[in-house]
Amino acid sequence: MRHLKNYYYQFTHWETWDWRIKYIPLVPLWLRHCIRSGSWWFFTSSNPTLAFGGFEGETKQAIYKHLPTGSYPKSIFISPEEDFPNIQKRIETDFNYPFVAKPNVGRMGYMFRIIYSAAQLQHYHTSMCVDYLVQDLITYPLEVSVFYYRFPGEQKGIITGFVKKENLTVTGDGKSTLLELMRHCINVPFRLKEMESKHRENLNIILKKDDVYALSNALNLSRGGKLISLEHEKDERLLNVFNDLSIYSKTLFFGRYDIKCASIEALKKGQEFSILEYNGCGAEPHHVYGNGNTLVRACMILAKHWNILFKISRYNHKNGAPYYSFKRGWKEMMECRKHFAALKKLDKDFPMFRADK
Prior knowledge:
By secondary structure, the protein is α+β, with helices and mostly antiparallel strands. The protein has 13 helices and eleven strands. The protein has three domains: 17-73 and 140-166 and 225-343, no CATH class; 75-137, Dna Ligase, domain 1 (2-Layer Sandwich); 169-215, no CATH class. Helix 3 (27-37) packs parallel to helix 12.
């Protein structure tokens, strides 16, 4: 019976569908833009200094170079081929536990972990198959996503979406095990096997009443996170903050900022915030999920964003930013698919670390 309820919930909530199904109605529009531009990869000129226009495959190291110093977490680059004793020495010289480890080229929160001890760091390092970053753990209480675009040559852009992000958690009742709580959490059944594997060492613990247990460190929708609309908080002060960020490198025109901040008011003042990620033209406007939209309404929002993406890309192309050739774009796409498939496979069974382990 529980499985039937889960299937029914998933069927009636389009937000839980595979992205390839959700995007089917928009395929003709995407093809139209390809034909009009004469390029399968028309979007690559949208953010000219980002690899693939920031569609996917851009390193976080490269992204941070386009942002003001101090607006993103302190970070160091780590190769999985480096000896662990050297890694440990380098990291512990500049960082205090806990800190964050995540792939230099990442997606959907794969292998994003909070590291609480040297033993956990060694486990992470010896398991990683790709380059990764170690970063300060940003402890601001609020995480938000801001979708912003600006037409080239203009000093002022537009914020199309503003949402708050909450991670996937369960709350103890003083009598149920973690496994039982997960089975009854509405967002867990679709990824129950994954969660059982990641939390296998804690499945039989009983959480105290009202204790909150985080099932994922990443606040991504794909990791069970929740998106809450902050549409009513959009104003000129917020826009000015992102105008300044966008204009800093003069080449960021279309994408989404994922940010942790002390409060909405602090963010509007340009204070007490840290940019966790900037996702370029491949970024999904998170507000299609956070505003109670129907699938039809969501597709209309996505279509509007793709039209803007096409116009920005065409303008930059006419002013000297080349489109990728088909061969170059295809190679980039296949390399990214291989990279993310390896991360997804590793992440599926890799444990979530805790401070008491």
